[in-house]
């Protein structure tokens, strides 16, 4: 094993050791979908509360390269529904975000920062 390989292995091990109460499988699962990765990036950048509409708008702009008003209406609705029913609840279940489903508000928790080092590796 080369020194570079050993160093990257050690840094991966160190990253997993720094995560409290989240298994490596859970980390990979949470980061496996592009929309969840974008949500995490947006929440880190915002340093505060976002609505699902805010998140949906940003995802559409990133994926389609257009303003929300010019996006495909069906895809806009599909992104909102998947955030509302799948992606945000999955992050909330692991304690990464607090989610008020009634108000469609998403707030990062301290655990969110545990995923940031993994995003930079993707």
UniProtKB/TrEMBL annotation:
Pfam families xref list: DUF7344
Domain of life: Archaea
Domain DUF7344: 28-107
Protein name according to UniProt: DUF7344 domain-containing protein
Cited InterPro entries: DUF7344
